[in-house]
Design goal:
The protein contains 8 helices and no strands. The chain is mainly α and about 210 residues long. The protein has one domain. InterPro entries: ER_ret_rcpt.
């Protein structure tokens, strides 16, 4: 494993933990947290890590998969059950089915191998690239986001950017090239570009973040 993938994994884990701790410590989901994005991420991990029961790669790989799955469902539980009264469903109105259905169709049409596990893995890659859209849409509707929510988004964006560097590293040093993962990663990184700019120019200067409506 190269340093870029490790850094990407740790950034991803940090993002998830930051969000979980924010919800648990404040006993609230307020602050422009999209439950729909969290459901999509839980679906991403579920369909991607079905190989937990069929394929052992390494202790690190197995532990990280379990942590991602557990944290994803814990976040959904906190938003929709434990602290449901604080969830801002009125602004979390992005039609998630407009992402899931086209992505499912694309996974059937464009994949490495037409088998159930491979199609589900491909589906997870495509879905992850757009799963953040409900979150960004919610921030644009409310006009702002709590600082801790922006830290979560920044760490999530950094995870994706670091993984792109990881793919480049693997291409040059391991002769490994996965077009599906690279294209999806590029799409996801592009979606974060505007947020990165606002994060650097506003949040890091102590201002509250807002997205153009």
């Amino acid at each position: 494993m190269n340093v870029f993938r490790l850094a990407g994994d740790l950034s991803h884990l940090a993002a998830i933990i930051v969000l979980l701790l924010k919800i648990w410590k404040t006993r609230s989901c307020a602050g422009s947290i999209s439950g729909k994005s969290q459901i999509l991420f839980a679906l991403v991990f579920t369909t991607r890590y079905l190989d937990l029961v069929t394929n052992f790669i390494s202790p690190y790989n197995t532990v990280m998969k379990i942590i991602y799955l557990g944290c994803a469902y814990a976040t959904v539980y906190l938003i929709y059950i434990k602290f449901k009264a604080t969830y801002d469903g009125n602004h979390d109105t992005f039609r998630a089915e407009f992402l899931v259905v086209p992505v499912a169709g694309l996974a059937f049409l464009v994949n490495h191998e037409f088998s159930p596990l491979e199609i589900l893995w491909t589906f997870s890659i495509y879905l992850e690239s757009v799963a953040i859209l409900p979150q960004l849409f919610m921030i644009s509707k409310t006009g702002e986001a709590e600082t801790i929510t922006t830290h979560y988004l920044f760490a999530l964006g950094m995870y994706r950017a670091l993984y792109l560097i990881n793919w480049i590293w693997r291409y040059y040093f391991e002769s490994f090239f996965d077009l599906i993962a690279i294209v999806a990663g590029c799409v996801q990184t592009v979606l974060y570009c505007d947020f990165f700019y606002l994060y650097i120019t506003k949040v890091l200067q102590g201002k509250k973040l807002s997205l153009p409506a």
